[in-house]
Amino acid sequence: MISFSRFLPRPLLILVNILALLFGLAMLHPYPRQSLFGPTIRGKPWCVWEDAVRHFVHIQFHDEVIDQTLSAKVRHWLGIKHQGMGWTELFDDAEMVPLLLELAEDTDPAVRAAAFHAICNTDKLRHASALPLMRRRLHNDDEENRTNAARALWLLDKDKQVFPVLLRQLADRQYVYRVDAMQLLSGMSAEAPELYPTFVAYATDPDERVRSPVMQAMRHFGKKGLPILLEGLNDTHADVRRAAVNALAGIGPDGKEAIPALERRLNDSDKKVREAVAAALRAIVPEHGPHLRRDNK
């Protein structure tokens, strides 16, 4: 091995060794190391974005910064104030996916929850690399995690293993996110005709917030959904009646059997229902549109 020490003056050799030591010490901190060698996200070191996410989470959940990472401690020691970023600036970019996947397994529960929520509910962050994480969280003890995982899995992969999870949540009258479960199932109805019996079973649920998405789902079943929608037109809650009317508008000409029932609802006590009825009748029988009474008082 060639030694360069004999070719360099002693003072220069000492200087080189000092510089090498300083460089080595600098490389202990992720900022200079990642600036030179990566990984980077949007041109900035990974650690910058990690610190920004942690700062955001602690401000959101604790009203104060309690970040104990090395980067945060160095910033504090140097007197550098953290420049906070908003949700969109932080999360609305596909390059953030690898970092958020790592943070979704963080030891800090607030950071873990925020990262997973961002992955599941931000279009640009839903990526195939997150599927294993979503499938694990689908069976998590946390109710919100299960709901977020189910939504994301369906949007990303049309994974029907979410059905039994959502159906169990829907059957549990104590479940906090029960309404969310039905809304998710309703949104899946266009591509999941096998859910029809479930909607029928919950068409008379005691909670109007469950009945409304049932009515919304019926638009995807054509004439098959008419009996449920006709019942919905007579529901005691205006939101359910309006959902049934809007579904009939979505069915269009196949909803002609519902015209008499719809016309009776032109005198509904709720203004929004009356407006929806007029629109539905025009959608079902366009040629009668100009002659429909529009009572918006």
Explain what the structure shows:
The chain has a domain of 115 residues. Helix content is 60%, strand content 1%. It is built from 17 helices and two strands. The chain has a two-stranded antiparallel ribbon. Helix 11 packs parallel to helix 13 and helix 14 runs antiparallel to helix 15.
Helix content: 55-70%
Strand content: under 5%
Number of strand elements? 2
Q: What does the overall shape look like?
A: elongated
**Radius of gyration, taken over Cα atoms and rounded to an integer in Å:** 29 Å
By secondary-structure content and strand pairing, the structural class works out as mainly alpha
* Strand line-up of the largest beta sheet: 1-2
Mean pLDDT score, rounded? 82
Return residue spans where pLDDT drops below 50 for at least 5 consecutive residues.
Answer: 293-297
N/C terminus separation: 95 Å
SSE order, as H and E?
A: HHEEHHHHHHHHHHHHHHH
Helix tally equals 17
Report the major sheet: 2 strands, antiparallel
Oligomer kind: single chain
